[in-house]
Amino acid sequence: MSSTDQPKPGADHPKNTSGITMRDVAKAAGVSVATVSHVVNDKPGSRIGEDAKRRVHEAVAELGYRPNALAKTLSQGHSRFIGLVADAIATTPFAGQIIHGAQDEAWRHGYVLLVANTDGNTAAEDEAIAMMLEHQVRGILYSTWFHHEITVPEALLQTDTVLVDCYAAGSGLPAVVPDEEQGGRTATEALLAAGHRRIAFVNTTTPSPAQTGRLAGYRSALQAARVAFDDALVFPASPEQEGGYAATTAVVDSGATAVFCHNDRVAMGLYDGLRERGLRIPDDMAVMGFDNQDVIAAHLRPPLSTVALPHYELGAAGVRRLLGLDAALPAGPQLIACPAVPRHSV
């Protein structure tokens, strides 16, 4: 049989359509999965051009796509699923609480959380978002394992999206993030309340909202206590144990009686440096951390006083924001308080 005699697509012969998905239709029609979803489900209010609709309908007919049973019953245009796409939080020692908080809050309101942990792989991220759109999720939480600015994946603009522990200036997307400045103020206030007036701050060298926010909180607490800010008491350090250890000599030589560390890992390194010098915590030097990374803070000797990053509440607040359950909120990122966790290092 010559090539001209081959049966054309769509000719009368049985089609194997069981594996055809919305992504296949989207690829054939040259549109997004969200566009296919809107056309197939005839979603009210969707702004889709006639040419795009035509291409989708032609691709549906050509491929023999049949919407799944779930999609056929979606009277509200969405399912009882909420998606959560994360870069690495499921594998980090404490940020997985974001998933826990989101899952509990979703259950509370009759939704099931669909979680995709992409490890920062862009292709996997795109695939996960496409699959969630195909399943007609109520919306998507997009979360990162540390607080920073992101570039929003284009597919997220096709559905209701809330950014969790990250933000995208100018995107118009709502964001739920830790109140870094309040956390820095709370940490410093704990040292002030213990009677310290010469308080060092070991800050990170990595540009981030945590770097600027925690420093602003430190300065604010000093100002409120009428303690002069001394730039010579702010020490830059890499944000891990080695950074805290390396900063020990400068902190001790500064004459400080207390130190606020950018995070618990820095505090752990400082513990090592102070111990080598025969100094006792908190008798010779009070130490305050940040993060409440339980595998560190609760197991140092003495246990580390710190400020918690509110990961559980970030996840829960993200779900509430997505479902429109909270009262009217400001246009900027929603700030979640970072509570103090007092132990025995202050």
Structural write-up:
There is one protein chain. With 346 residues, this protein is an alpha/beta fold. The protein folds into three domains: 9-72, Orthogonal Bundle (434 Repressor (Amino-terminal Domain)), CATH 1.10.260.40; 81-178 and 312-337, 3-Layer(aba) Sandwich (Rossmann fold), CATH 3.40.50; 180-307, Rossmann fold, CATH 3.40.50.2300. Helices cover 38% and strands 16% of the residues. It has twelve helices and twelve strands. The chain has helices at 22-29, 33-40, 50-63, 69-72, 97-108, 122-134, 180-193, 209-224, 241-253, 264-276, 294-297, 311-323; strands spanning 81-86, 112-117, 140-149, 161-167, 175-178, 199-204, 234-237, 258-261, 286-288, 306-307, 334-336, 340-341. The strands form three sheets. The chain has a six-stranded parallel beta sheet, with helices on both faces. Strand 6, helix 8 (209-224) and strand 7 (234-237) form a beta-alpha-beta unit. Helix 1 (22-29) packs across helix 3 and helix 2 packs across helix 3 (50-63). InterPro entries: HTH_LacI, LacI/GalR-like_sensor, Lambda_DNA-bd_dom_sf, Peripla_BP_I.
